[in-house]
Design brief:
The complex is a heterodimer of chains A (about 450) and B (about 300).
Chain A (H helix, E strand, L loop, with lengths): L2 H19 L7 E8 L6 H22 L6 E8 L4 H11 L13 H14 L3 E2 L17 E2 L5 H16 L9 E7 L2 H4 L2 H11 L2 E7 L7 H10 L3 E5 L4 H11 L7 E3 L6 H4 L10 E4 L8 H11 L15 H24 L6 H8 L3 E2 L1 H6 L9 E2 L12 E5 L4 E3 L8 H19 L6 H5 L6
Parallel strand pairs in A: 1-2, 3-4, 5-6, 5-7, 7-8, 8-9
Antiparallel strand pairs in A: 9-12, 10-11, 12-13
Helix pairs in contact in A: 2-11, 2-12, 3-4, 12-13
Chain B lengths: L6 H32 L6 H17 L4 H24 L7 H23 L14 E4 L2 E4 H23 L1 H11 L1 H6 L4 H27 L9 H11 L4 H21 L9 H15 L14
Antiparallel strand pairs in B: 1-2
Helix pairs in contact in B: 1-5, 1-8, 1-9, 1-10, 2-3, 2-4, 2-8, 3-8, 5-6, 6-8, 9-10, 9-11, 10-11
The chains are: A alpha/beta (about 450), B mainly alpha (about 300).
């Protein structure tokens, strides 16, 4: 082999090695790995949420040519809402360059990914759900339970009931039953209801419904005997319509049942038929398609034949709008990070920085076409929830109608409990608490 | 202590439990029909139930009149039952029971997947025109819908009993159930009988699917109601329709009473596993269930 041939071979090998090391994506693309679920028992929620998310990403691409010229890309991996499939999808999708954030919309999959995404330095978004103590950014730098964690949800529901009764002082002497799903998710808020009951002087009785919740006769007979002023439904899946039907069956007034954030969709009330009329549930995003951003999606995305929902009547449904709001939050985090790091494909850690500076006040929300769709968000390096406001919608048999103002949960009361739990987790895992300076240091490569 | 006991509440819980038990029996009867004549524990019964309810409600939502949708769904279920027997079970004749069970397990996933493929993933409400407001009987609140469901179940058991006792094909079913080889020897056509049984199971799935669908809404977790039927079968026996009824009543009543009166000692939410505790206790005492046939094998 001649010298020049050897040099050529070395140069070629080096070039090949470099090309392998370089990201496979084009420099102007930001990628979303979507662990979606479009088949299986939870497909109705999955198609709505991921449909809304993709519709918004499409809107940004079609209308604006991407975020400052950076095209948004994605691919879907079917999880059927199963944790092991979700992890498989993660392993398959993580090698794709330019990943912005993970959005699995599954508590189980999210829990299974925390260590992995922390090592990879790519944000994990658990909008409206996830583990409550991941709100503490000192311990969970890459996890973002945006808008609402389970404790804030609990506080928001109690504040709503108080408003209905005429003030927080009117809660004294009242009785609230919490009917919860027999799972870690269902049980997570038990201590917070106890705490709020003690603080405000109401009594609380918490009753478990075994998974999946298709039989609730005994629970509702117990409720009828207890004669509570309100029942909070902390349900999931089939448990929700069965709860409403059984309430009617035992003669409990449905308009005194308040649903949590996973009991608030059309899928929860339609199967209950007339029994659901008058039922109220919490939400962070109002439903309906009258909001400018939803109208723009209809015109621009569905008009171009690129809409994600097969059934157009679901545009503006609870899960579809949650997907749109989730899209707004992801895209704006990228936009904020781009202002600091440049209009290019960002690393996961740079996007994390963007999320930690995600501040959308009501004026900015209005400018995004989402006035009244959601209120605002104010994420910081140590508060990864972002002080989301909640509102309440009542089902009239055909659609949800907003029946309250935007309500603020009692964040100040909840923060010390969240910090205590996060610090215990940090001690168990040997995690050093992050500081503001740590949060500002950003990895420029994944 | 006894004086403080709320008898009216106890009666309500008991009545509610018995009526829920009837709903479990409806699912269990589908299992019994197949098991009785072919020895197959058909795990796909839940998926059949879902498919029936989903087909019916989808047809009604597309504007088909109620009665016509019912007839079309019945025809579909009969065709599906016969198709399953032809395509899956007949080729597996004389294979070990575990092979047949695994085949029906696989079948349940295929039917669920096909249902989503054909009818989509949305959930549906199903109204059968029976108001579900509580009815007061002697100071005890009883669900009108549950009474209706119990009446339907009773009618179905009566019809099946008459069918098995007085019709030629029904007697053939019983002959096959008693001894397949003897039935074959006297000229009964087993494949035809099995196809008939699967069609009957399709009908039971339709009735149970409509009643459970009206109770839970038509959604994918509908197929999970098979989990409620399993302890009923263990208790009542896998090959007895009467056993399915009595087993359903016992399971329904005991799980509800246990949830209300001893649930708190275990942290609540015990009824799903308590049913299996009752079934296991019976299994230990009577392995063939209350009304199941005792198997004596010569070795």
């Amino acid at each position: 082999m001649s010298f020049f041939t050897t040099v050529k071979a070395v140069a070629l090998s080096a070039a090949l090695a470099v090309s392998v090391a370089l990201p496979a994506a084009h420099a102007d693309e930001q990628y979303f790995p979507l662990q979606s679920y479009r088949v299986g028992p939870y497909a109705a929620g999955g198609t709505g949420f991921f449909g809304g998310f993709i519709d918004y990403l499409n809107l940004i691409n079609i209308r604006d040519g991407g975020v400052n010229g950076v095209k948004l890309t994605w691919d879907e991996c079917e999880t059927q809402y199963e944790v092991e499939r979700g992890v498989e999808c993660y392993e398959r999708q993580k090698s794709h360059a330019g990943a912005a954030a993970w959005n699995p919309l599954s508590v189980g999959i999210a829990y299974a990914m925390i260590d992995r995404i922390t090592a990879d330095k790519v944000p994990l978004i658990t909008v409206n759900h996830g583990r409550t103590d991941s709100t503490d950014g000192r311990v969970f730098p890459y996890v973002f339970p945006l808008l609402l964690n389970p404790y804030s949800e609990t506080s928001g529901i109690v504040n709503y009931i108080a408003a209905k009764e005429g003030g927080i002082d009117k809660l004294k002497g009242k009785k609230i039953v919490v009917l919860y799903h027999g799972s870690p998710y269902g049980k997570e808020t038990i201590p917070i209801y106890e705490l709020l009951a003690q603080k405000y002087g109401f009594t609380v009785q918490q009753i478990e419904v075994p998974h999946p919740g298709n039989e609730q006769q005994s629970q509702w007979l117990t409720i009828r005997r207890a004669k509570p002023d309100f029942v909070v439904l902390r349900g999931w899946g089939v448990m929700n319509p069965v709860a409403l039907k059984t309430a009617v069956k035992v003669g409990y007034p449905v308009d005194h049942i308040v649903g949590n954030v996973w009991s608030n969709s059309e899928e929860d009330v339609i199967p209950a038929g007339d029994a659901a009329k008058g039922y109220t549930a919490i939400t962070t995003q109002a439903s309906g398609n009258s909001y400018p951003v939803v109208q723009e999606i209809v015109k621009t995305v569905y008009g171009a034949g690129k809409g994600n929902l097969e059934d157009k009547s679901r545009i503006g449904s609870v899960y579809h709008n949650l997907g749109i709001v989730n899209g707004i939050l992801n895209v704006e985090a990228i936009r904020i990070a781009q202002e600091k790091f440049g209009h290019r494909t960002l690393t996961g850690d740079e996007v994390r920085w963007g999320f930690e500076h995600l501040k959308l006040d009501p004026a900015k929300v209005e400018a995004l076409g989402a006035k009244d769709l959601f209120h605002s968000i104010n994420v910081s390096w140590d508060n990864h929830e972002g002080e989301g406001y909640v509102t309440f919608q009542q089902w009239d048999g055909k659609k949800w109608n907003v029946v309250s103002d935007w309500i603020a949960p009692d964040w100040a009361l909840l923060r010390p409990i969240i910090e205590k739990s996060a610090e215990a987790y940090a001690a168990e895992k040997g995690i050093k608490l992050r500081t503001a300076a740590d949060a500002d240091a950003v990895a420029v490569t994944n | 202590m006894i004086a403080d006991f709320d008898y009216q509440f106890f009666l309500e819980v008991l009545t509610g439990g018995l009526l829920s038990g009837v709903m479990y029996s409806l699912v269990a009867i589908g299992f019994v029909l197949i098991y009785k004549t072919s020895g197959v524990l058909n795990f796909a019964q839940g998926a059949l139930l879902l498919f029936a309810a989903l087909t019916f409600v989808s047809l009604v939502e597309r504007g088909m009149p109620f009665a016509l949708a019912l007839a079309v769904t019945f025809a579909v279920m009969v065709a599906l039952g016969i198709g399953i027997e032809r395509a899956v079970l007949r080729p597996l004749t004389n294979k070990p029971p575990i092979t047949l069970f695994m085949a029906t397990l696989g079948l349940s996933y295929i039917i669920e997947g096909a249902a989503q493929l054909i009818w989509g993933t949305q959930v549906h409400g199903l109204e059968l025109g029976i108001e579900d407001v509580p009815l007061e009987v002697g100071g005890v609140l009883v669900s009108q819908f549950d009474i209706f469901a119990a009446a339907v179940a009773a009618a179905m058991v009566l019809l099946l009993s008459l069918f098995f006792r007085y019709t030629r094909i029904g007697l053939s079913f019983r002959a096959v159930a008693d001894d397949q080889f003897a039935a074959l020897a006297v000229g009964l056509r087993l494949p035809l009988i099995w196809a008939g049984v699967w069609a009957a199971a399709g009908l039971v799935a339709l009735v149970a699917g409509l009643l459970w669908g009206a109770r839970l809404g038509v959604q994918f977790s509908l197929s999970l109601v098979v989990l409620k039927a399993l302890p009923v079968l263990v208790l009542g026996g896998f090959d007895s329709i009467l056993g399915a009824i009595v087993g359903g009543l016992l399971i329904g009543a005991s799980e509800k009473l246990a949830e209300v009166y001893i649930g708190d000692y275990f942290g609540g939410g015990i009824e799903s596993w308590f049913a299996y505790v009752v079934a296991l206790v019976f299994l230990l005492i009577r392995p063939s269930g209350l009304f199941g046939q005792k198997l004596v094998e010569r070795v």
